[in-house]
Each structure stands twice: as structure tokens, then as C-alpha cells.
Amino acid sequence: MLLLVAIAGCSEAADSTSQDNADAVLPGSGAVSNPNNPTSSGTAEAADTNNSGGASNAAAPAVAPSKTPKKLYRMNAVYSFVPINKEAASSKVVLLTFDDGPKADKTLGSLLDTLDKHKAKAIFFVNGYRVKQHPELLQKIADRGQTIGNHSWDHIDLKKEKMETVKKQIGDVQTIVNKVTGHKPVFFRPPFGSGNDQVKGFVRDSGMLYMTWSDGSLDWDSSTKNKPDKVVANVLEQLHPGVNILMHELPWTTQALDSLLTKLEAKGYGFIDPATIDLGLHPTAASAK
Ligand SMILES: [Zn+2]
Description:
This protein is an alpha/beta fold and 289 residues long. The chain has one domain: TIM Barrel (Alpha-Beta Barrel). The protein is built from eight helices and eleven strands. The chain has helices at 9-13, 105-117, 128-133, 135-143, 163-181, 197-205, 228-237, 251-266, and strands spanning 73-75, 81-83, 93-101, 122-126, 147-150, 187-188, 209-210, 215-216, 244-248, 270-271, 277-278. Strands 3, 4, 5, 8, 9 and 10 form a six-stranded parallel β-sheet that branches. Strands 2-1-11 form a three-stranded mixed β-sheet, with no helix packed on it. A two-stranded parallel ribbon has the order 6-7. Helix 5 runs parallel beside helix 6. The two termini are 13 Å apart. Mean pLDDT is 83; it is low at 1-22, 24-61 and 284-289. Bound molecules: zinc ion. The site of zinc ion (ZN) has 7 residues, from strand 3.
């Protein structure tokens, strides 16, 4: 039942001089649910996402304020999304995510404008050291109604670190994001998609949903550098209902985004609002399978 891993941590690690690099991902990252990639070395790490019931600090107000959207989607074992109630939400959706920012007003602004044009929401998984450099860009993401996720402070491989370091790498991002925007992230993605039980446990205890992705754009890879059309093609090749699309704040991705979203819409896909994702952190979620 578990799907293992083989994170290509090496790809990114090998290129560690560049902070602009991203999470290693292989073309077959659609994992089990993608029959076209049987040899996938997959990026989904384990089938333990909806589980555990762990942390209990997720607020579950009996009377939800009108600001809080209804929860419509739940993440599955391979980090894709399925409707909680098929009659209430379409399964033909994708989650858009952008990692490793915030970097620059130009690239970020372009992404935000294109998302607005398509009335699309996304999660921006940020690194703490970049937030420290550009808190105003983080604020901009929040001001534009997009969701901020935690991607660790230094973009290091957390699987190789001691618990103390893991806590600091994750906790310091919660602190700085909260300081800048007034809200702590509720989504976490490990750099390189690389985690272990220690990392997952701390993430859950911090009130966040841990995810890697299920549709890698490969925009970080040299094969796709400066090729917006390739970004689009890579995503569409792995497309299936509910995919969790990994992209980065990179110039060729910003150039690709309008075309990508247009093509997704033409195929009948909608965009998941991260606020409608059930984090699965409620104590009662433990029994949900
Ligand atoms: Zn990253």
C-alpha cells in the first residue's frame, strides 16, 4: 500500500550552488495513479497523509465564520486531491503550487496577475531566508488573496537533519510568516520532497498538512530551463483529476502560466482554492480512511 519514494534528492543537491533550483522531481511523479509512467520513481513518499489524527490544534469552529470556506477537498496518499463529497465539488480540478520564493517583484507579480486573470488560487511555498530578504513580497502574496505555505528556512534536506534543526527550520518560518502576515501557514512542503517520520510528525504537530506533489512541471530542471512550452507540456503529460502541480517562481514558469491555465480550463479543469482543503488534522479524522 505504500508507495515508495526514491526522491531524486540528488538532482537538486548536486546543484546546491543554486538556490533557484528546486525540488527534484521525476517525470513519472504522477506516481501510482499515472498509468503512463509505470517506471515512475515517484515522488509521493508514503501513504500516510490522511491518517494519523495526530495534532489536534486545528480549529473546528461549530459556527464557522463566513470568511472560512467550506472544506471541499481532501488529500490522498499520493498528494493529489479528491472531493470530500462528489456532489458538492468537482473532481476535475488541480492544485497550483509555486515553491522557493518569494524572489522578485517581477516574477511574483506576473504569477499573481495571471492567477487573478484566471480567478485561480495557489499555494506559495516560501523559504524563510527569502522572506527575511523580501517581507514585502510575502505581504503581497497575502494581500492578493493567495495562500502561503512553509518550505523550510534554508531549503535543506530535512531528512538528513537532527530533530532540533528540523524544528528550527520549520518553526522559524511559521514565526516570520506570522509576523509579516498575521497568519501561520497550514501547509508544508519539504525541500526536494524529502522527509521522514520525524519531519512529518513535527509538521503535523505544528498544525500543517504535509505534502509533496503529484505532477511535477520540471521547471527547475535544466531540460526545461527557458522553455515555457516545456513547462506546459510536462504538466499536461501527467495531468489527471486532482493533481498537485509543482512549479517554481522562475521566469519561464511565469511565461508559461497563462497558457497552462488556459489549456487546463479548456480541458474542463478548475483550480482548487487551498482554503477549501481539509487539513485532516482534526482528532476525528483519524478514523477517516
Ligand atoms: Zn523547493
